[in-house]
Design brief:
Radius of gyration: 22 Å
Strand order of the largest sheet: 2-1-3-4
Bound molecules: iron/sulfur cluster
Number of strands: 4
Structural class: mainly alpha
Amino acid sequence: MQTQLAPEYAARPEGREAEAILRKCVHCGFCTATCPTYQLLGDELDGPRGRIYLIKQVLEGAEPTRATQLHLDRCLTCRNCESTCPSGVQYGHLVDIGRKIVDEKVPRPLGEKALRWALKEGVPSPLFTPAIKAGQAVRGLLPASLQAKVPTPRAAGAWPARPHARKVLMLAGCVQPAMMPNINTATARVLDAVGIETVVPPQAGCCGAVKFHLNDQDGGMAQMRANIDAWWPLVEAGGVEAIVMNASGCGVTVKEYGHLLTHDAQYAERAARISALTRDLSELLPDLLPGCRAACSGPTRSTPTTRPARCSTARSCAAAWSCI
Ligand code: SF4
Ligand code: SF4
């Protein structure tokens, strides 16, 4: 797609990056078929191709409006559209740039600003867990609409105690430990079952996605650098096989650290190494499956009538595989 950048964007690195992405788009619209917001709303401007046009127009000098901002806000940044694009358009990178330049020109109403501020500062905050616990304590008294947003309390379960020579790092995340603490412990137990120790450096926190996608890109990148600082001594020392993610939003963000910090001379190299080491748990499962089967004394894909007594990981494994 030919794009004539307005002079104010031609001089900026993100303008040039956006132009390179736009040039790959051939308007075919295959991406709309896999876009959840297009399927839900049926408006071309709420699909990837329409949003790409909106961003192109702004980059060429058109004045963005509240409507432009709304169509970009409605994008879930799920990047499902990238999976069907025959031209390899990096829509996720483009929409980050688009949101930034539109927000520079279109002021948001006060209430919306306050809500976005509360989300970006509150969700990754250490106060989020106590706030969820307080909500759970009075859950029965809350209006139905709020009750639905406060999950019932669930036990985290036991964290495995055995040390192993094989090690992975894991990002605990900001929301998951408060709302679904059992996911992290189940992940650690599955890895323990196959002889891998999970290490969670306490200094690592939010992956940065919450702030970054609420257009506090500097705040998000500060969190990314903090995570790199927390992980780097262990990575540098060697022996870390992977940085495991079990929340897809966090995983996709950490895999982007290398791209997002590419212009940061101090962090670019380490960020690229961190991204290269990052794996969603589901990416590790094919290699782990034989070990887990062995740990469970070899049940097969048929449902076993009895489970071996020494299989202490069955619940964790059951969440991941149908063989148990
Ligand atoms: S990222 Fe997701 S919601 Fe946004 S345009 Fe692509 S498919 Fe649609
Ligand atoms: S599928 Fe790719 S090339 Fe086709 S319109 Fe969508 S982004 Fe552009």
